[in-house]
Specification:
CATH class: Alpha Beta
CATH topology: Spore Coat Polysaccharide Biosynthesis Protein SpsA, Chain A
Strand content: 15-25%
Shape: globular
Strand order of the largest sheet: 10-9-6-11-14-13-16-15
CATH superfamily: Spore Coat Polysaccharide Biosynthesis Protein SpsA, Chain A
Number of strands: 17
Distance between the termini: 37 Å
Largest sheet: 8 strands, mixed
Number of domains: 1
Radius of gyration: 21 Å
Order of helices and strands: EEEEEHEHEEHEEHEEHEEHHEEHHEHH
CATH architecture: Alpha-Beta Complex
Biased composition (Low complexity): 7-21
Number of helices: 11
Mean pLDDT: 85
Region (Disordered): 1-40
Structural class: alpha/beta
Length: 383
Amino acid sequence: MEEMEKSIPLLHPSPSRSPSPAHWTISQTPRRNPSKKSDHIVLGPAAGQGMPDRLQCQGLKAMNGIHSSNTNRESNNCDTVTFVTVFTVYNSHLKTESAKVDDKSLGTVTVGNTSYTKTERSMAVLNIFVNFIQVSMPRSNVIILTDPASEFSVEKNVATILAIHGDYSRDNLMLQRIRSYITFLEQKLEEHPERLKCVNHYIFTDSDIAVVDNLAHIFQEYPNFHLALTFRNNKDQPLNSGFIAIRGTVEGILRAKTFLQEVLEVYSTKYMKASRMLGDQLALAWVVKSHLSFAFKKFSRHEAFPGDMNGTSVLFLPCAIYNWTPPEGAGQFHGMPLDVKVVHFKGSRKRLMLESWNLFNSTSNLSDMLCLILASGRTKYDF
């Protein structure tokens, strides 16, 4: 007799109710087509169970809590942290009203009681990105670098939209992101940061991340670095370009600008065939390896370490803490470290970003929310 496929618990909100935990239902449903992207949360085993330094979960309940950074030091320090991301909306200014109606009827997905078109999904992710920063780092601001032709707005007054000219087409977006970062740093230098009493540090990130702990401690615990990168034990893609921290001093900004200019040059000359995806990460790894080949031998240790690149002090931070992703959490990260700071919802896991915010927004329990991410992050979703 043919063996029946093992049932997998599914989590989804009841259609007629709000997406609060009390109204979520869990059912045992066979997963007949594992390759099909899911339109609801699929719970599986939470990796890292039984390991003392990993988040322990029973269902969606955390049995231990994550370790929050000491925020008292930030309150006694006038230095601030600004998050910078690149975001654009394609052809929003060219669409007719009928085209917008067609958008709403085609390709919509539903999270909780809300349906989203493709553009609305991107905007929801962007707004939740800002929401998490407000929760974890209420003193921080967000700057969104974008194409002047993009038409969108953000809900929170802590976010500022800054238009920077360039080619933001899909095939060129990752290359343009580096150019926009460089232009932004040039603008900051023109503001003469040396005249300011307090230092404004910068963290360049993807917008599909959740900051779940205060990151200001990076600049205090490691006072000598100019820029920081996140690494993982991945031979082909050891560095992730979705998180770059820059010290907001004149020297820090200058050295970060020079570093990114070198990455841009390598990207433009060696990796244009991968311009739509991965080119920036390949260029980043090439530049680091050309200056600090020894660094790659340390990427398996999951510990922060410094390196010097012609006078530029680079701090390497482990992705397991500062750029944790659901699939890798079930794999090489062996669960979720208790001191995790940033969760990165890559690719189709962006649905999980919205679901996670809904849970946190209704419970204010960060550890339980992380259990949801840990238990459901292996599945590919319909985002």
